[in-house]
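Exercise 7. Given the encoded structure of a 160-residue chain, write a plausible sequence.
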């Protein structure tokens, strides 16, 4: 298990994802504890990109419940039909929101959040078990590069 990240500075996001994804794979390889792995993934993303908030919401009963995260305090529970996280869970697809004020039903856990991308995480059977939620304090901060990189990270989670 690697416990140190080597993050290239001053490179574009694609280069950072290209460097980070294999390091995250090495970080979680052989560690069977889901919570430990999610905590390290959230920390790695926060450290690599400096995003405002990075974390996971796990499906528990009939809602999403806050899991490991990095950033300011967050909403603890989200209904499947609420906010970007609920929409990504229900639609079973990644949702990129350039301006959260323009997303109907956005849940403002923090007024500092301006854009967001939420990626559903599937288990081996194809069921959504959680979502990876990443927020920025800048409008229009995410692109297809982030969607592709975060979806690759979500695929790593499927393996444990």
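Solution.
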């Amino acid at each position: 298990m690697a416990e140190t990240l080597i993050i290239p500075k001053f490179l574009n996001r694609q280069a950072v994802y290209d460097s980070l994804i294999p390091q995250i794979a090495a970080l979680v390889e052989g560690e069977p504890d889901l919570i430990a792995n999610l905590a390290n993934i959230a920390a790695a993303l926060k450290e690599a990109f400096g995003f405002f908030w990075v974390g996971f919401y796990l499906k528990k009963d009939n809602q999403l419940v806050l899991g490991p995260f990095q950033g300011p305090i967050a909403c603890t529970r989200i209904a499947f039909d609420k906010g970007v996280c609920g929409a990504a869970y229900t639609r079973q697809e990644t949702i990129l929101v350039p301006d959260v004020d323009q997303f109907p039903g956005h849940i403002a856990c923090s007024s500092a959040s301006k854009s967001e991308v939420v990626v559903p995480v599937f288990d081996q059977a194809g069921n959504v078990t959680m979502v990876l939620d990443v927020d920025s304090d800048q409008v229009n901060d995410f692109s297809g590069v982030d969607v592709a990189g975060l979806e690759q990270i979500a695929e790593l989670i499927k393996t444990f």
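Remark. Helices lie at 13-28, 34-49, 83-91, 144-157. Students should compare their own answers with the one above.
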